[in-house]
Amino acid sequence: MADTYILGIESSCDETAAAVVCSGEKIASNVVFSQIASHQPYGGVVPELASREHLRAIVPVVRKALTDAGRTYNSIDALAVTQGPGLAGALLVGISYAKALAFALGKPLIAVNHLEGHIHAVLLEERQNGNYQVNFPILALVVSGGHTHLYRTESRGNSWSYENIGQTRDDAAGEAFDKVAKLLGLGYPGGPIIDRLSSHGNPSTVKFTPSQIKHQDRRSRSSEQGVPRFDFSYSGIKTAVLRYVETHDLQASIAARQRSLAAIAKPRLEDYLNHCDQQTLDLIASFQHAMVADLVGRTLAAARAYDAATLFVTGGVAANNELRQSFERDAGREGVAVYFPSRPLSTDNAAMIAAAAYPKFLAKEFAAMDFSAEAGLALSQR
Ligand code: KG4
Ligand code: ZN
Question: Which end of the chain, N or C, is surrounded by fewer C-beta atoms within 10 Å?
Fold first, then answer.
């Protein structure tokens, strides 16, 4: 079959991204413009600001993706864009631009679910590395700033199906990393810095009790196969960190750290270490350790219940070193193959959107020009 070049566009949160992927398996270009610097002073993503920044970045980012790939607007075969979930205003920028471009070029447009993109990032990574043999059923953990979702994933030809068998009841795992980092005066986004600082602390200093999912919600009924759901909950651990801070009188040192780090344009690891005492480093390491143990434990329990042959771990938090090591060690012990995307493909990017669009292109699943952004778009009904 002839090579198919798809231009992917992603603007669901705080990254403006465009990429060209050949036949769902080879990245020709992958451009990500991060807005982190604009949102950092506010300690989180400001939706209004995100939309404005996407507007500013979208044209140059798409142009660079084409140039890097050595393609012209006319030499791509189709466009793909994230429809949701995400921030409505941010999504609309990518969608409006993709629609206009597709219309002007007379090329088909494919609407992609952001979560499906994260799952296909793993397949893209494997195919790039020459691995086309992934065993089903696949259990995919999408773990990011907005999601902690488990999907049982199947494919029949070009048709992919996803059954949601668990998700967070409250905060997403990445959100917990971000909130705890903010609480400790470490700035935004929290995941990468907690990841780097954790190896400098003792993870068994503070004991966090694993979250209890007591109440069944309406999604908690057993699946068709009679297998239970595997939900997560991460707001409790954030409150436990807050309680530790209060009972150990850490507020003054946190405020001092926040001021000192805010005065440094681009703090390096040494700067963070210079402003964290051992007690704080131990707290950070213990928090990360508890998060990782919970994510890995629940996902492997689900893998056993669903008899999964393969685990995909994807989304921003999949970049975490301890999470990767724990999954590799524990899944290996149980004989389940585990795959992650490379770190640049773990966090938001458009290559994953172009890759997820390829089977839809083959199935001629094109979007009508009147489709719109869906902030709460689900990947499967349950
Ligand atoms: O997938 P992503 O780029 O955007 C969303 O779709 O949410 O994920 C961003 C999230 C943030 O919460 C960030 O703190 C977290 O991923 N993250 C990490 C790491 N790198 C990014 N969390 C833990 N360890 C990391 N190394
Ligand atoms: Zn994402």
Answer: N
Question: What local confidence, expressed as pLDDT, does residue 252 receive?
Answer: 97
Cα–Cα distances in angstroms (integers) from residue 26 to residues 66, 126, 346, in the given order: 14, 10, 16
CB neighbours of residue 159 within 10 Å: 12
Tell me if 316 CB under 6 Å of ligand 1: yes
| For residue 222, pLDDT beyond 60 | no
Model pLDDT for residues 264-278, shown as the tens digit of each residue: 988 999 999 999 999
In whole angstroms, what separates CA 56 from the centre of its chain?
Answer: 23
Coil/strand/helix, residue 379 = coil
Q: Which two tokens stand for residue 349?
A: 């990017």
Distance from residue 145's CA to the centre of ligand 1 (Å)? 5
Amino acid residing at 258: Q
Q: Is the CB of 185 under 6 A from ligand 1?
A: no
**Residue 222, number of CB atoms within 10 A of its CB:** 9
Atom of ligand 1 nearest to the CA of 86: 6
Q: Tell me which amino acid residue 233 is.
A: S
Task: Note the pLDDT of residue 182.
Answer: 95
Which contacts (CB < 8 Å, 24+ apart) does range 162-165 have?
A: 162/115, 162/116, 162/119, 162/379, 162/380, 163/223, 163/380, 163/382, 164/219, 164/378, 164/379, 164/380, 164/381, 164/382, 165/139, 165/223, 165/227, 165/229, 165/230, 165/302, 165/306
- Model confidence, pTM: 0.94
Distance 152 CA to ligand 1 centre (A): 22
One-letter amino acid for residue 7 of the chain: L
253 lines ligand 1 (CB under 6 A): no
Beta pairing, strands 159-167 & 15-22: unpaired
Whether the predicted pLDDT of 223 surpasses 50: no
Amino acid identity at 113: N
Assess contact for 314 and 150: CB atoms under 8 A: no
Give residue 53's Cα distance to chain centre. 20
- Domains present along the chain, CATH in parentheses: 5-131+346-362 (3.30.420.40), 138-343 (3.30.420.40)
